[in-house]
Amino acid sequence: MHFSPLPYLDPGSGSLIIQILIAVLLGLGVAFRASWGKIKGWFGIKPKADDDADDDAS
Hints:
Structural class: mainly alpha
Strand content: under 5%
Number of helices: 3
Mean pLDDT: 81
Number of strands: 0
Low-confidence stretches: none
Order of helices and strands: HHH
């Protein structure tokens, strides 16, 4: 009879993997937000004109 052990992750390894996945997701979110202006530029979306200029002239 051939016995093969089942795969096992101890709690320390499991929590490390979860922390790495969370860090990767948050890092991608920060990188996406930091480069949002360039991403909009690729699609030809221009920023709206500020309404603050009208308030200063009054």
